[in-house]
Design goal:
Layout (H helix, E strand, L loop, with lengths): L13 H14 L7 H13 L3 H14 L4 H13 L3 H14 L4 H13 L3 H14 L2 H17 L3 H14 L4 H14 L2 H14 L4 H13 L3 H14 L4 H14 L2 H12 L6 H13 L3 H14 L4 H13 L3 H14 L4 H13 L3 H14 L4 H13 L3 H11 L6 H13 L3 H14 L4 H5 L8 H9 L6
């Protein structure tokens, strides 16, 4: 790419044009600018999101070139960008007076109608355009149609419109960059795979097409194919950050943790890693049993983003695995102070306090977990088992009854069996165990992992009686 500043025939750079414009504006004495110079100034101010200055330039351009439809169109587009559709339509009418068959006017009018929710009128214009716009503009027409469908939340129709755009012009960047979102909403993953394989056959160096292909593969759990596609995306464009991130995510989902680490290392050569990536690197090292490396990355994540609760939580998990419950509880407490609406943090902190013998705080946070996510049976079970194991079997039974107001499941029946065993009500416990085994035999491992149950011969006898036939 040529990085030299743009020069016009008379040798003016964009900086010189801006200086000349500002000087004239200050002196209220404007000289003549060529159309190309105005366009260069407009592009500059729009890139800088200075719509106020762009409008000043357009007004001057219209004054000096009153029969040029292009400046009326640009003014309409600025008003659309600021959601002033009626104003935009007024300038489009003026543009149309000078260029009645300009396709860009029609497409911009469709944008204004879409903003006003005049969808049928917009689609009528687009249908008319399809009949005479020719192949050169057909992909733009379909992209515009897709945007109408997006505004109507008709994402399947949006997908097919973008698909047609890309079949007409596989290099249409707007269509390529919008279709991944549309595919995710509409669930058209298999069709997206077929489409992007076709696009790549036509344009093998389209990094966006490779990325979209990888995203579709990942969405249908074809992680090996997804990883390969994402790799092509960032090999073609080594500054494409999303491709590195999603490639590493696919590696993690596939269990290829070392590969994920290598992808992040490649990414680090191109851009600075953030707290989210440091957390994922920590998780990868945890899975690889590299405890110290995991902790180091969680500390990096905290240093990068001190108010990220996930970083504190995962650091707590590292300490918990090493049975350092004091450090674990502090990390969990840091996490929950940053986000007190996450039941996972509450349950983890409760468990740490339980291990430390701080039953009052343990009870508080076990209860907080059930209050935060009452529909999740596992948090009720953790609370009930805590009560049963700390001499509060009756309260455990009462809590179990409360749990049935919010959630159901065989696991709660196994939990009731455990509470009855803790209360010494063995006959009733063994009878209910039979019911639980009949409902879901495989779930009995939940019961067997609770304290005092694995060595209970009567429980084993009942379980053995319900063993599935191996014939």
């Amino acid at each position: 790419m040529n990085n030299k500043p743009h020069r016009f025939k008379q040798g003016k750079t964009i900086a010189q044009l801006i200086f000349e414009l500002e000087t004239m504006s200050h002196n209220k004495n404007f000289g003549f600018f060529e159309k190309a110079e105005f366009i260069e100034l407009l592009d500059y101010y729009e890139r800088k999101n200075r719509n106020d200055k762009a409008l000043e330039v357009i007004d001057l351009a219209i004054a000096q070139h009153p029969f040029s439809s292009e400046f009326f169109i640009r003014k309409a587009q600025i008003f659309i960008a600021s959601e002033q559709a009626m104003e935009a339509l007024r300038f489009l009418d003026q543009a149309e007076a000078y260029a009645p068959s300009d396709i860009e006017i029609a497409l911009t009018r469709v944008e204004a109608y879409t903003l006003l929710a005049f969808y049928e009128e917009a689609l009528i214009i687009l249908d008319e355009l399809k009949s005479y716009c020719g192949k050169t503009y057909l992909d733009e027409v379909y992209v515009c149609e897709a945007m109408v469908y997006e505004d109507r939340n008709q994402h399947e129709k949006m997908f097919y419109a973008l698909r047609k755009a890309l079949l007409h012009n596989c290099k249409n960047q707007i269509a390529l960059k919008r279709i991944w979102y549309c595919v995710d909403i509409s669930g058209k993953y298999d069709e997206s795979i077929a489409l992007h394989l076709h696009i790549i056959d036509e344009d093998p160096y389209s990094y966006v097409a490779w990325y979209n292909l990888g995203y579709a593969y990942a969405s249908v759990s074809k992680f090996k194919e997804a990883i390969e596609a994402f790799e092509y995306a960032y090999i073609i464009n080594n500054k494409f950050e999303f491709a590195y991130r999603d490639c590493a995510d696919a590696c993690i989902k596939m269990g290829a943790y070392q590969k994920a680490i290598e992808v992040y290392q490649e990414a680090e050569e191109q851009f600075e890693l953030d707290g989210e990536i440091f957390i994922k690197l920590g998780q990868c090292h945890e899975f690889l049993k590299n405890a110290e490396e995991a902790k180091a990355f969680y500390f990096k994540a905290i240093e990068e983003e001190p108010e990220n609760p996930q970083a504190h939580f995962h650091l707590g998990q590292c300490y918990a695995k090493r049975l350092n419950w004091v450090a674990a509880s502090q990390s969990y407490l840091n996490a929950i102070e940053l986000d007190d609406k996450d039941e996972i943090y509450a349950a983890a902190l409760a468990e740490a306090y339980y291990k430390l013998g701080d039953w009052d705080n343990a009870l508080f946070y076990f209860e907080k977990a059930t209050e935060t996510a009452p529909e999740e049976s596992k948090y009720w079970i953790q609370l009930i088992c805590f009560l049963a194991n700390t001499g509060m079997a009756q309260k455990a039974m009462e809590t179990l009854d409360e749990a049935y107001f919010y959630t159901i499941g065989t696991e709660l029946l196994y939990c009731r069996v455990y509470c009855l065993l803790k209360q010494g009500k063995r006959k009733k416990a063994l009878y209910l165990l039979g019911e639980a085994l009949y409902e879901d035999f495989d779930m009995h491992d939940i019961l067997m992992n609770w304290p005092g149950v694995r060595g209970d011969e009567e429980v084993h006898a009942v379980v053995k009686a319900f063993l599935p036939n191996k014939d």
